Amino acid sequence: MVVDDHPMWREGVARDLTEAGYLVVATSGEGRQAVRVAPAARPDVVVLDLQLPDVSGVEVIRGLRAALPRVRVLMLSASGEPQSVLDAVKAGATGYLVKSAAPAEFLDAVGRTAAGEPVFTPGLAGLVLGEYRRLAAGPATAHDAAPRLTERETEVLRLVAKGLSYKQIAERLGLSHRTVQNHVQNTLGKLHLHNRVELTRYAIERGLDG
Q1: Does 3.40.50.410 match the CATH number of domain 2-132?
Q2: pTM passes above 0.90
């Protein structure tokens, strides 16, 4: 699903996605309309502009996630302002790409977002991880009874926290791509988390990215 208030841009993105083999189930130029049609359209990924005429992209993310908890949102915005990125990620965006990205970079980002991988324009990933570290350094809470992860799951979690892709993790550990995905899915289930962004935050909060 593509949500952007500029018709030419919206149609261009939808066309690029269709030509790349994706099924575009809906397009919208307004945030409220996008939230209304999403439950019927049931997109796996929403490509969303930050600045919309009626409501902010951050509000749209919250509405989409409330209606479709498993939906993945890739922000595609003209703004690379740090606060905009952090607000989007905190609201539940899986990734954030600026509109100056090359078409190939955009299509790669959509594919990785669909797979649940956090995707950020170069330079923005460090910003997001830095914010997570800042939040993790806040007042300490009582230690949770953390679910027990296997040694391999913990090993994969450490590499996720360092920002490695599934392919890179597979190569480093001598595993198949599918095995890495299975470990991540099992870990998400044990920790009651929904995506790699939340998993990365969990790992950083526990110092596993060192």
Answers
A1: no
A2: no
